[in-house]
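Quick note —
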Amino acid sequence: MAGAWEQQNGIDFFIALPSVGWANITWTITFKELIIPGSYSVGSWLGLPVDVARNRLVKDAQEAQARYLFFLDDDVMPPADTLEVLLSNNLPIVSGLYWAKMGVPAIWRWNKAVNSYEPIVDWPRNTLLPIDAAGAGCLLIDMRVFQHIPEPWFLWQVRDPRKPQGLSEDWYFFKKAQEHGFTSYCDTRVRCIHQARSELMPEGTFRLAP
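Predicted structure written out below.
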């Protein structure tokens, strides 16, 4: 996105934690080790529906006049250099990589032939990958994106998990961003552990958590 920042004051990063109270000591240590390359503020909403929490955190970031919003879920553990790596791409929307709850990488492409999202299972290593959707557990967003996308930015549409007939709040955001001209990416150099879901192996691949 071209153009100068509208705000002259404010902070570089708003670290947004839409917590459901899962954070443990391992996650806390990982979060403490996260390198934040600039000024920042941390905000969290506990116990709210996840779409409500994410929308409130966007507004908190706007009030803080942040340049970037970084969503980090309280069960996702990123590498220490995550923000530096994601920021280096200079992109409006870029995600790290972790496994989703259903045991596949949390990055998807839209398959027109079957009218559905499909996980990108054979993801290329150490590269920038265009995607149609991702989990929002490790997600860096240029705050100017929210000047171009109307509210609500996140909306949970799945009413019956057994028969999903709508989008989860993160897929809703990515679809809405795409409809407003934004291409989203995943930087596969950033590989996160999803607690109780997956482990990161020494060679950089994932396996389901035991």
